Amino acid sequence: MNPRVCFLYSVLLAAGSLLMALNVLSCASRPPPSPGDFEFPGNREREPEPEPRAPEFSPEEAGSFPSIEEIVADAGLLLAFDDDYADIWERYLDLFDRYEVRVTFFVQGDYSPFCTVAENRGHEIGYHTKNHFNLLKVSRQEFLEETVGGAESFRQQGIPLKAFAYPYGYSEPWMDEILWENFPILRGFGTTFRVYNADAIKAGYISSKSIDNNQYKDDAEFEADISDMFTSIKLSGGFLPLTTHTIAAEAPWGISPDRLEYLLKTAAELELKFYRYGDFF
Ligand SMILES: [Zn+2]
User: Fold this and answer.
1) What is the pTM of this model?
2) Which of 78, 149, 197, 215 has CA 20 to 30 A from 186's CA?
3) What's the CA dihedral at 106, 121, 205, 196 to 10 degrees?
4) CA of residue 167 to ligand 1 center, whole Å
5) How remote is the CA of residue 169 from the centroid of ligand 1, in Å?
């Protein structure tokens, strides 16, 4: 285990019972990292979803707190890759196998054979619209073609598409109402660290934190953020959605191979499980 994770985890474990007694673990939120140049004007920051308040932490049940082992059993990651980088992603399927990690690819466009390859290897295909338009700026008819219409070619090929990710994270509540009839889980996008419990995910909308290269000034900052987030959910429980795009060292919207491997290694060290969005439905 790398020293930072090891140290943080030891401290958290040692402090665990005291913190639980103080009942301060119910909120896993914390300020986002410096947003850098990441600015999506108008990106809807929704009201916080129900916090990852596992019933274990409710005051009524004080005195019957679960063990650390019981809490961490529910900790997990929802790792997603967005857009149209199938040729790149395919090169990393062996790496995911090596770490026994399953992820969700939110693909844009039409069905491609990658979707079947990825699903056959245990990953999930989610949908991310036909053309990646800002859905706030298209007609109602275009909205339907971009979303429900675009999903058809996948479903004809046996790809169920349970999850949908809004391009740029932009959405309005009326869109949710339409899309929930076609996708049980909808996903937004932002810079905020948010942890969800299973009920909150099943409610149908979660927002995912960007871990793209452009969110961090260097590898050290990325590694510190990953270590802090992972050790935090290891103790608090709950599910952390993280999103990036391509896998390349220089891409602003993507994760470098080294950072990806650091993320996978850190999760393995902490025995954090990986979930696909569809696992909750
Ligand atoms: Zn996208």
Assistant:
1) 0.79
2) 215
3) -130
4) 5
5) 8
How crowded is residue 61: how many other Cβ atoms within 10 Å of its Cβ?
12
Q: Which residues face 127 on adjacent strands?
A: 107, 164
CA atoms of 171 and 161, how far apart (whole Å): 19
Task: Give the Å distance between the CA of 5 and the centre of ligand 1.
Answer: 31
**CA 63 to ligand 1 centroid distance, Å:** 45
The pLDDT of residue 10: 59
Measured in Å, residue 168 CA sits from the centre of ligand 1 at: 6
- In whole angstroms, give the CA distance from residue 234 to residue 228: 10
pLDDT value, residue 75? 81
Per-residue pLDDT reduced to its tens digit, 15-43: 544 344 333 333 333 333 333 333 343 34
Q: Tokens 């997990």 map to which residue?
A: 76
CATH number of 75-280: 3.20.20.370
The DSSP 8-state label assigned to residue 31 in this structure reads P
Give me the amino acid identity at 15: A
Beta strands in the chain (DSSP E): 76-83, 104-107, 124-127, 163-165, 185-190, 205-210, 239-244, 246-247, 254-255, 273-274
- On the 0-12 / 13-18 / 19+ scale of CB atoms within 10 A, 236 is buried
Cα of 189 from ligand 1 centre, angstroms: 9
Among 157, 130, 154, 160, residue whose Cα is nearest residue 144: 130
